[in-house]
Write a structure and sequence with these properties.
By secondary structure, this protein is α/β, with parallel strands linked by helices. Helices cover 31% and strands 29% of the residues. The two termini are 26 Å apart.
Length: 236
């Protein structure tokens, strides 16, 4: 059954889809009045809905019984140096499938790509499409890109991990299991060429725990998805 995003503030017994979601329903899928679709609000709520009315730029829905699912705990946050090309699109898509709660794109000293205006909006659209395709009812927050050092000035709560090749980095599972119950796990992944020594020192200075993802050097996108998969396995 086709899935559509219905924003929380539009969640009424007689609701309206608007914008791109309405156009996709009416012009691409050509769904008609009387058909049934699934809607979700990005916060864990979903319902089946009967299409009441179809217009060019909006679609009326009659919502059925609502079901609300709890979010996976702890919340997984991915803080990642923006990779070059379209790789960030892939990271966002797969991170959504793995259950990430939030994604923070970062600009580091060795980041090659300097994101322009609208990049975050593009990644948010990728995240929404991934939600619709994979069946999750939670739409992760995709934040605006930030300078790495500025982001570290207000470090995240919960358990903080940094993927590291440095001597002394511990196996990820041991660090996670030793942390006990935490509300949030933030995983920090560096760019091609890794963080500079100064950036690594700054992260360690605000209690990021260095963890190894194995003996081989992983690409940024591989490291990010490896870490999220390991966390999903540990907490699923």
């Amino acid at each position: 059954m086709a899935r559509f995003y219905l924003s929380p503030d539009s969640w009424n017994e007689e609701a309206w889809l608007a914008g791109d979601e309405a156009k996709h329903l009416s012009q691409v899928l050509r769904i008609r009045a009387g058909d049934t679709v699934t809607v979700f609000d990005g916060r864990g709520r979903r319902a089946e809905a009967v299409v009441r009315e179809v217009a060019r730029d909006r679609v009326g829905l009659a919502l059925g019984e609502t079901r609300t699912l709890p979010r996976m705990q702890p919340a997984m946050v991915l803080a990642i140096a923006i990779p070059k090309g379209k790789t960030m699109d892939l990271v966002v898509q797969k991170a959504v499938e793995l259950g990430v709660a939030a994604i923070q794109p970062l600009v580091t000293r060795r980041t090659i790509v300097q994101p322009g205006d609208g990049k975050a909006d593009k990644w948010r659209r990728v995240a929404l499409e991934a939600c619709k395709q994979c069946g999750t009812d939670f739409l992760p927050e995709v934040a605006e890109p930030l300078d790495f050092m500025k982001w570290l000035a207000a470090p995240p709560e919960g358990l903080r991990l940094i993927a590291s090749l440095a001597p002394g980095a511990r196996e990820m599972r041991h660090v996670v299991r030793g942390a006990g119950e935490v509300p949030v796990v933030t995983t920090l992944v560096g760019p091609e060429g890794d963080f500079t020594p100064e950036e690594t020192a700054a992260a360690l200075g605000v209690d990021f725990k260095p963890v190894t993802l194995g003996p081989t050097v992983l690409r940024t996108e591989t490291a990010a998805l490896f870490a999220l998969s390991a966390l999903r396995y540990e907490f699923a």
